[in-house]
Design a protein that fits this description.
By secondary structure, this protein is an all-alpha fold. The protein has one domain (6-128): DNAb Helicase, Chain A, CATH 1.10.860.10. It is 67% helix and 0% strand. It contains six helices and no strands. The protein has helices at residues 6-26, 33-39, 50-61, 68-77, 85-94, 103-128. Helix 1 (6-26) packs across helix 5, helix 1 (6-26) packs antiparallel against helix 6 (103-128) and helix 4 (68-77) packs antiparallel against helix 5. The longest helix is centred in the last third of the chain and has 26 residues, at 103-128. The mean pLDDT is 87.
């Protein structure tokens, strides 16, 4: 049984994509400020899609401004890069409507969704006892 409705799951995935695309767009300014600010709100484990968590983790650990190439290199270094991943990173930006002003809002939504999932899971486990 899923702990999230299909609608909530789709909303969560959309929010994650928007945030990641927005962070890549913001990095065009050659600064890591948005990534650093976001890391004070969420961590890779807050993403419902584990792949999105890996992308965010790569953003956190690259020592250069975030770009498609930097993310792909970092993911490859960690053994997480697979065929088609670079095109997915490009799609995150191509379909993104998140502006730099929205990044913190989206990060807070992801944190809220993560906290709700954890609360639902705890209740489910307690109810099974």
């Amino acid at each position: 049984m899923s702990i999230l409705s299909d609608e909530r799951y789709r909303a969560t995935i959309h929010t994650e994509r928007e945030l990641l695309g927005g962070l890549i767009i913001e990095a065009a300014t050659l600064t890591r400020d948005a990534v650093i600010e976001t890391s004070h709100i969420i961590s890779p484990s807050d993403f419902i899609d584990m792949y999105h968590g890996k992308i965010f983790s790569a953003m956190l650990t690259c020592n250069v401004p975030v770009s498609y190439l930097a993310i792909a290199r970092e993911m490859d270094r960690n053994g997480h890069l697979e065929k088609g991943d670079c095109s997915y990173l490009i799609k995150l930006v191509a379909h993104c409507i998140c502006t730099p002003f929205d990044i913190v809002y989206y990060a807070n939504l992801i944190k809220e969704y993560s906290d709700q999932r954890r609360g639902i899971e705890v209740k489910r486990i307690q109810g099974a006892k």
